[in-house]
Amino acid sequence: MIGATAIGVVEPQTAVIAALCAGVSLSGHSVKAGTRLLANHSPEPFSNIALSLGEDFLVVIGSWLALRHPAIMVTIVVIFLIAFVWFAPKAFRLMRVEYLAALALLKKFYLLVKQYVQSFGQRRRLAAVGTEFTVPVDVGAVVSRAVDNDDVPEHILHRLDNKARSSGPRFFIRGTAGKGVKNLRHSVGYLQIDDDSLVFATKRMFRLRDHQIERSTIEDIQFRKGLLFDRLTIRTNGKQQQFYFFKDAAERGSRAYEILQVHKKHK
Hints:
By secondary structure, the chain is α+β, with helices and mostly antiparallel strands. Helices cover 52% and strands 20% of the residues. The protein is built from 6 helices and 7 strands, in the order H-H-H-H-H-E-E-E-E-E-E-E-H. Helix 3 (46-68) runs antiparallel to helix 4 (70-128). The chain is extended.
């Protein structure tokens, strides 16, 4: 609107059209950025090369259509906007997950460095008084404790309480749902593990949702550590369901895997 009015007196409807064009441009850039984010999860370079060549091709074709066949271009834009409405929430959830994972990794490094600096200062003080006693760095103590009831949001905990069948101990870990978790992929929530089941609870589309797995149906469990996430893959009835855990110094993802493995061995 500012650009349109800067060239002189512009009618209100022209300013509105200019604002709508800017909105379409913003949505196009958002889709491009989200698509790049998805493509960057793959280590091979070919998807990025194909996207770059595709963008160059679409710029030429889109410009030609806009000048020569505007009616066709308007139809394409309308179809694109409908696709954007469907794609935007998925891209937003993915970017939120990536942001939280990077934040958790930075927090882990910060806590490790802080613990090391504190232990180094304590060793120097002990050396100053003439003792040879040293204080090792306990990375497991960097984070206070594994997630317990007090760390889970009240509305999520209430949902999990309604799903709990076992009266035994429960383990909570924050993470995100992955492939195989129907209608909840890339949703950030809390996974509860008890003697009978796994329940992942989250807030999706302004309402609480959950996904439950009976431990008696688990056929195989795999755990893999990554740079930003630790991935837990569970196979039930021949289908895989994945959960991604944020990195932390307490290694809660490894702890969740150990709990499930112990139950599997006993079974």
